[in-house]
Amino acid sequence: MAFQHLLLEISDHIATVTLQRPEKLNALDRTLQRELLDVCATLKQDDTVRAVIFTGAGRGFCSGADVSGAPPEPPEHIPWQQLTDEESWVGRQARAIYHIDKPTIAAVNGIAAGAGFSLALACDIRIGSEHARFKAVFIERNLSPDSGMSYLLPRIVGQGNALDLVLTSRTVDAAEALRIGLLQRLVPHEHLLDEARAIASQIAALPPIAAIMSRRVIQRSWENDFDAQLREEIHAIAICRRAVNDTREQRQAFLERRPPRFTGS
Fold first, then answer.
1. What integer pLDDT is reported at residue 74 of this predicted model?
2. Cβ proximity of 50 and 105 under 8 Å
3. Residues forming a β-bridge with 108
4. pLDDT score of 31 more than 70
């Protein structure tokens, strides 16, 4: 599949998606928004892919929505419901990543701002180089957070930190991002993609159904109480056990003292 503003590479069960508008710090124009939706739909259906890395070309991860060609303000007579429906595209990319049903890693190589910040939040694991920076930016544009930031950010860094970042719109550097939990790992810039691929390879070597269900059960824990989450866990384990060949392979590999080879079946 050919894309204009992103590059998709698949190797050893790992997909790497690189946003490629470096001259705009990978800002999201309509083409890139559409291509992100397309690539997520493609990867969700590709059973050979077991982990997905998202990163940006050049100096930025993603600087948010491209407002350089923003349309004029809509006429006042358009109903509010229609306006909100028309603007629903804003969160689609983050939603597509969040629901891709594969473990996802954001390799944050530079600025992640606005909707680009939200794209990183939608990934399961975020690693960054010393060049990584985060900025909410919305309030400076007379907007409140979108693309899932209001949902994801307080759950990741806590409500106090989330309000600090959103209400001040200050830039968070890589060291602070690691300290408050925005980043899980901080690595030298030249090793960023190597580290992302190492994490993805570790995930891809494990049972793929169990990885999917582990990701899903943790996502759903945010909406469940304790007893409901216990039921969610039991349901997930039952699905994992349907991969009978992987269960047998794990036992056989242990007995033979060799690395297991999981197939997702």
1. 47
2. no
3. 128
4. yes
Q: How confident is the model at residue 88 (pLDDT cuts 50, 70, 90)?
A: low
Question: Measured between alpha carbons, how far is 114 from 24 in angstroms, rounded to an integer?
Answer: 14
Question: If pLDDT is split at 50, 70 and 90, which confidence band does 68 have?
Answer: confident
Contacts 24+ apart (CB under 8 A), 256-262: 259/205, 262/205, 262/206, 262/207, 262/208
CA gap 183, 141 in Å, rounded? 26
DSSP structure class, residue 28: B
Integer distance in angstroms from the first to the last C-alpha of the chain?
A: 27
Residues 6+ apart with CB under 8 A from 26: 19, 20, 32, 56, 57, 58, 60, 61, 62, 63, 116
Average confidence score pLDDT of the chain: 92
The token pair that represents 218 in the structure block: 């943790």
Which phi and psi (to 5°) does residue 193 adopt?
A: -70, -35
**Cα–Cα dist 220/45, whole Å:** 21
Question: Residue 46's closest CA among 204, 194, 240?
Answer: 204
For 89, the 3-state DSSP assignment is helix
The closest of 183, 126, 180 to 157, measured between CA atoms, is 180
DSSP conformation class of 207: -
Q: What's the pLDDT at 77?
A: 53
Task: Return the percentage of the chain with pLDDT > 70, whole number.
Answer: 91
Q: How far apart are CA 169 and CA 160, in angstroms?
A: 14
Q: Look at residue 81 and tell me whether its pLDDT is greater than 70.
A: no
Q: If you ran DSSP here, which 8-state letter would residue 147 be given?
A: T
Write the CB contacts of 150 (distance below 8 Å, at least 6 apart in sequence). 144
